[in-house]
């Protein structure tokens, strides 16, 4: 995984975990990699992974079964969508709207680009 400078590493790892859940690579009630396994895989400090897992627990995306490990919760997909949607609406959308306004991009042009993106990436 390549980390970007513009966002905390533990948040980028949270995005990584959430994406695995949304793509159903990790399903409800399945065990997620241990803190140590994930730290080795992503080449980060285990404390960073623990911080990520604590955040995801607070959002009810994963749960800790003492002595066994962390598991994807039953409603993880809905929780991930709500968590990411709130972040997108509050932080990313205003920046996008500002750029759309400043660059004078029409909604028709956006719609066309969006449809092309969906067709190329999700309708294969």
UniProtKB/TrEMBL annotation:
GO terms for molecular function: DNA binding; DNA-binding transcription factor activity. The keyword Lipoprotein does not apply. Residues 7-75 form the HTH gntR-type domain. Keywords: DNA-binding, Transcription, Transcription regulation. InterPro entries: Tscrpt_reg_HTH_GntR (IPR000524), WH-like_DNA-bd_sf (IPR036388), WH_DNA-bd_sf (IPR036390). It holds the Pfam family GntR. The keyword Transcription regulation applies. It comes from the Bacteria. PANTHER family: GNTR-FAMILY TRANSCRIPTIONAL REGULATOR (PTHR38445:SF10), HTH-TYPE TRANSCRIPTIONAL REPRESSOR YTRA (PTHR38445). This is GntR family transcriptional regulator. It comes from Pedobacter petrophilus.
């Amino acid at each position: 995984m390549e980390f970007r400078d513009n966002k905390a590493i533990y948040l980028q790892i949270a995005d990584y975990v959430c994406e695995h859940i949304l793509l159903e690579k990790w399903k409800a009630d399945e065990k997620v990699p241990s803190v140590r396994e994930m730290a080795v895989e992503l080449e980060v400090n285990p404390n960073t992974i623990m911080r990520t897992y604590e955040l995801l627990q607070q959002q009810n995306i994963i749960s800790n079964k003492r002595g066994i490990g962390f598991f994807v919760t039953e409603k993880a997909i809905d929780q991930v969508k709500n968590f990411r949607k709130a972040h997108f609406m509050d932080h990313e959308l205003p920046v996008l709207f500002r750029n759309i306004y400043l660059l004078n991009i029409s909604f028709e042009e956006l719609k066309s680009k969006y449809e092309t993106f969906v067709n190329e990436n999700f309708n294969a």
